[in-house]
User: What shape does this take?
Amino acid sequence: MSEPQIPERHARLLAYAQSLTPPTGWKIEISGDEIIMMAGRSVIHQRNLLLVRRQFEAHEPADLMPSENTDLASPNVGKLRNPDLTYIPLESGGNEVPAEQAAIAVEIVSPSNPENDLVGKVRDYPLMGIPLYLLIDPREGDITLYSEPSDSGYHQRWDGKFGDPVPIPSPFGFELATDALLRYPA
Assistant: This one.
C-alpha cells in the first residue's frame, strides 16, 4: 500500500490536532508530521509585539487586517502555523486562513522554544508562500526580515539589531522603529 498524499495525511493530523484541548494559554501548530505545542507569551513578548503591531497598523493597506494567533494552513505542503502577528485579507473567515493569503508573518522568539521560530518557521514559511517573515529575537536583540520566498527558502535576508530601523517593503512600505523593543532578562 502506498503512503497517503500529503494533503490526506495533513487533513488527518489537523483533525487530530483540533481534537486536542491544550492547557489554557497554549497553542498548537503542525509542521510536517509533528504537532507542536507552545506555552503562552511572557509580558516582554506581549509588549514587543504590541509595539510592532502599532507601527504596522499605521501603515496597513485598507484591504488587510491584523490578526494574532491565526492558523495559517498550507495543506499541499503539510503545514499549519500560527504566527504571533499576521496580516490577512479583510474577507478572510473560518478557523484557518490559506497561508498564501498572508502578507507577512511576525514572530517574537520564545525563550523556551527558539528553534521553532529560528529553524522550523524559516523552513516552513517560504514553502507556505508567505512573502515576508519578520523575526524578532529578544534573547540577543536581533532582528531578521526574510523576503522573496521559494520552495528552497527565502532569497532575501536583512539582519539588524534592536535600535536599527527595519525596512518593511510593500504592501506596508515603512521603516519599523526598534529602539523601544526590550530584551529578555539574562
Observations:
- The chain has a mean pLDDT of 87.
- The two ends are 52 Å apart (CA to CA).
- The chain has one domain: 42-176.
- DSSP finds three helices and 13 strands in the chain.
